[in-house]
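Let us practice reading a record.
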Amino acid sequence: TDDDTFSNVFCENSKKLIDVHLFALAAKFYSLSNLGVCTPLEDIREALRGDNQGITGIKTDEFMNNKKSHEVQVMSELVDSIANYCGIKQVIDIGSGKGYLSSFLSMQYNLKVYGIDSSNTNTKGAHERNRKLKKHWRAYQSRGRANLKSQRLEKANDRPVESEIKCKEINEKPLNNDNSLQSQDQVTIQDLVPSCGFAEIATSETSKQTEVDFVAQTQSDESKLSEEVLAVLDVLPADAVEVFSSSQCNCGELCEEEKAQRKMASLKAKASKSSESNLYVPLTSCITAETELSDIITDLEDCMMVGLHTCGDLAANTLRIFAAKPEIKAVCSVGCCYHLLSEQFENQEDCPEEVWGFPMCQYLKDKGWCCGRNARMSACLALERVAVGQMLPTESLFYRAVLQVIIEEIYGVTKSDRHVGKTFSKSSSFIDYVRKSLKKLELDDSKLPDSCIMDYYEKYKHRMNELEAFNMLKVVLAPCIEVLILLDRLCYLKEQDNIAWSGLVKLFDPVKSPRCYAVIALKKQSCF
């Protein structure tokens, strides 16, 4: 595309929009999906996992809503693959909230997870929710084992044909110089970025695996799954799980004995900070770029950081901590709430020592780049949802717009630190909305009669369609602004000398989860 292709979108003199169609095409051209800068999720998965990875028997929709289930299922599988690749068992979940991701990583993938959230309410809620989840985990595990066995049987039925094809490929294909076999369709981290410095994933053993080995592996995996189920139970308090015994006789005595054993195991685990890997510990702390994780986590070891919809500056600070701390070997961060980002050049304040959420990379810092709150608010909009018919809340946006005119003209207020919040959903009419909003803003509504409020409503009612059109243009532009914020974070990682590979990956279905892009990075081997 030539530089002047989109030059006629705006009038050169008035700067007004004159070609809406060209505006939409330009916005699409500069979106992440079109720029070709993202690494496909499947490429990452293939680079990180072996043949038997990615088979999970437990579905998160058993105990989460559809959106959260989708996010946790996809992200937890990827996090587990990265942890296995890096040879680590400890995960730090920044901005863990109610602990959905942390709990699942711990129980499903046997990882030791520390969930850190600034809200003590969230931490307490995560504790309680995790306790209840543990209580029902046996049922999930049992169903998961049945699903796992069914999947493996299906895979075993397909295996002879696959094995025959692989054997033929091996016989026809010469060995590499390093004597390792690489299946043609497998992607390694080197294939994604050749200079990343990671050792090649050797696949000779899996390529040579015979049908007999596969059956033995299946039996071994089923045995391991049973052991993991028992291991989960052993570190739980005695009253956190239902009584279980494989024996039908003397059930009462065995149950009491098992209770005592589990209670002792639980006490020992707590006393030793729990050497068991499948552990989830919710913690309360406010994370900044200067946070020393070792002050929060006493048994900090080689680990990876994750963040599922880390809000505002927290996403940027997660990447800064990752880059600065040698014990953090990988990061997988999905940000959100771009409107809450702090900007270095927004208010033209000279605070060089301050740590800002945007920009992060040196290139944009040198340019003195600023988005502004309106642009960042636009970046939060969900184009894909609008595209499938989930329209914008036009009436609530109209209420908010007219309210702003009222508080500017009647009260002379142009800026406030207070927020109206979700007042619209709690209001019975426009008058009710205005009065509730004024109280939230601590403005005296007694001098504003109902008739005056309705005069403003009637004055602007005919312009509601204009407002809807304006907001649709903001929705179309949203991906372009999100690109700028995400590429800033990626460029920051590219500037760091200790990072082997970094990339942007589309993790989620954007209709289910509009903030769907993850920033992922791995440290160089020399940093391990």
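A brief commentary: The first strand starts at residue 90 and ends at 94.
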